[in-house]
Amino acid sequence: MAEQNAMSLEGTENIARMEKELRYISGIIKQQGRKILSNYTITPPQFIALQWLFEHGDMTIGDLSNKMYLAFSTTTDLVDRMENNKLVKRVRDEQDRRVVRIHLLGEGERIIEEVIDKRRNYLNAVLEDFSEVEINEFSRLLTKLHKEMIKD
Amino acid sequence: MAEQNAMSLEGTENIARMEKELRYISGIIKQQGRKILSNYTITPPQFIALQWLFEHGDMTIGDLSNKMYLAFSTTTDLVDRMENNKLVKRVRDEQDRRVVRIHLLGEGERIIEEVIDKRRNYLNAVLEDFSEVEINEFSRLLTKLHKEMIKD
């Protein structure tokens, strides 16, 4: 007797196709991101760190290393280099002086905004043949997927 | 007078959201891929090389370095290591003996199939709350996006 929850053949094929498309799309986005960064002084890991500070606010090195899946020591080195380049600074918590957070500086913010803007322009160009309805639905589905991925 | 082609505010917001979601989703997929590979003897770049050979057949080192956006010398080193590990072998073209292609061996195929299968299982699990209609549409939109990205 077939299991009730077994996926249909079409469902199985769609998962296989999605896994493959997401794998290739991620590769292209990564390469496109590197191309954009080649005009800037920051490295890809620095871009990811600045992205977290820009979109989620000040963070401790511990938080940042968790978000970036990096060792604490690697994140410390990364932050040191960005602090030397005046992209971020360390700020002591007013309530609890033992806590130090990384704060994005003006120049770091300017760079991250410019880079994200270029990434949006690229995406906008490749979505040229998508209708507004498709873009709406695509955006909704990606948001839902991301939510499911970070749900524990 | 407003430009006819100007995107609606909603359109602009959707592009911004999609860029962000794709950026985070790519990061999570990358990390998830690394987690899966930690149980195997291959590295992330080796996974990408095996993926190309598995899904697109035998390739010259030149083709492979283009696909992987790597320098020819880096790709040569990568292929040398995989050849030493009996994952691939170099095969001379029967028609044109000057042409050498990289061919996937049984052990390379076994590993890549297992790893892709684990990636599908992960995706299947995070898509649990998606209806079959949503998965169909999501799959179609990703395929369309990928096609636009590789169109020149």
Spatial ordering of strands, largest sheet of chain A:
1-2
The protein's oligomeric status is: homodimer
Strand content of chain A: 5-15%
Largest interface: A-B, 53 and 53 residues
Uncertain stretches of chain A: none
Helix content of chain A: 55-70%
Shape descriptor of chain A reads globular
CATH architecture of chain A: Orthogonal Bundle
Structure summary, number of beta strands of chain A: 2
Number of helices of chain A: 6
CATH superfamily of chain A: Winged helix-like DNA-binding domain superfamily/Winged helix DNA-binding domain
Structure explained in plain terms:
The structure is a homodimer of 152-residue chains. With 152 residues, chain A is mainly α. Chain A has a single domain (16-150), classed as Arc Repressor Mutant, subunit A (Orthogonal Bundle). Helices cover 68% and strands 7% of the residues of chain A. Chain A contains six helices and two strands, in the order H-H-H-H-E-E-H-H. The first copy, chain A, has helices spanning 9-37, 44-56, 61-68, 72-84, 106-126, 132-150; strands at residues 88-92, 100-104. A two-stranded antiparallel ribbon of chain A has the order 1-2. In chain A, helix 3 packs across helix 4. The two termini of chain A are 33 Å apart. The interface between A and B is large, with 53 and 53 residues.
Please provide a brief summary of the model.
The structure is a homodimer of 152-residue chains. By secondary structure, chain A is mostly helical.
What order do the helices and strands come in, and which of them pair?
The structure is a homodimer of 152-residue chains.
Chain A lengths: L8 H29 L6 H13 L4 H8 L3 H13 L3 E5 L7 E5 L1 H21 L5 H19 L2
Antiparallel strand pairs in A: 1-2
Helix pairs in contact in A: 1-5, 3-4
